[in-house]
Amino acid sequence: MPIEFVCPQCQKLLRVPDQSAGQQAKCPSCGGVTTIPSASPAAPPSPSFATTNVPPPMPNFGPPPAGTFDPGNPYAAPASNAGTASTVLPRIARDRVQAPAIAMIVVASISAVLYVIFTIAVLVVALGGINQQQPEAVFNFVVVALYGWGLILSIVVIVGANKMRKLESYTMAMTATILLMIPCNYPCCVLGLPFGIWSLVVLLDDNVRRSFQS
Q1: Mean pLDDT, residues 3-30 taken together
Q2: How far apart are CA 203 and CA 207, in angstroms?
Q3: What is the pLDDT of residues 68-82, one digit of tens each?
Q4: What span, in angstroms and rounded, lies between the C-alpha atoms of 155 and 109?
Q5: Is there a contact between 90 and 98 (Cβ–Cβ < 8 Å)?
Q6: Residues 141-182: tens digit of each pLDDT
Q7: SS3 sequence, 75-116?
């Protein structure tokens, strides 16, 4: 029967023929020289009935690594939530601002198109009045200036609402919302007021406000 023993240097299990007992042997793993015992070490005694029912000790795996928070695990360490909250919060805020921002862009785009049409129409009338030396031609140019100003405000609302969709500028998003809520500032003022109030309610939420980059 082969003799099995453990190398005292590297703890590697070695196996040699039984006729090698008492001789010097060199470990093939670490190169250490040891004396071969006369027989394999006796196997440990089997546990008695009194100890078979004792549960093994629970292993200690230490705290979970950072960034591995599992929402379905109620026993996860609170410290592991920090990285998750910083990524979940902006995603929730972006979902909330999408609908009111798109509604603002649609209303402001319709108003911008109408302002362009009105401006061209009044400008044609004003130029015709100058050629005919009509005194009301000057008033028509004032109307053209007002329509041009409305067109600029519509563009500001579109830019601010687009930044609101991307959570890029809280100031621009709030400015666009307030401009859209001003009555008679747009041809679509009937739609601008409710959509502006909707956007304002969303922007005043603390979680949404903290998610903006600036």
Answers
A1: 79
A2: 9
A3: 545 555 444 444 444
A4: 8
A5: no
A6: 777 788 888 889 889 999 999 999 999 999 999 999 999 888
A7: CCCHHHHHHHHHHHHHHHHHHHHHHHHHHHHHHHHHHHHHHH
pLDDT at 129: 60
Helix (H, G, I), strand (E, B) or coil at 145: helix
Contact 29, 7 (CB under 8 A): yes
Distance, C-alpha 14 to centroid of its chain:
56
Q: What gap in Å lies between CA 32 and CA 30, rounded to an integer?
A: 6
Residue ranges of alpha helices (H) inside 37-81 are 49-52
Integer angstrom CA distances of residue 85 from 89, 120, 134, 159: 6, 52, 67, 29
Cα atoms found within 13 Å of the Cα of residue 84, Cβ hemisphere only? 13
The distance of Cα 108 from the centroid of its chain, to the nearest Å, equals 29
Q: Under a CB-based contact definition with an 8 Å cutoff, are residues 162 and 174 in contact?
A: no
Planar angle of CA 145, 154, 172, nearest 5 degrees: 125
Q: Which residues pair with 25 in a beta bridge?
A: 34
Residues facing 33 on adjacent strands:
26
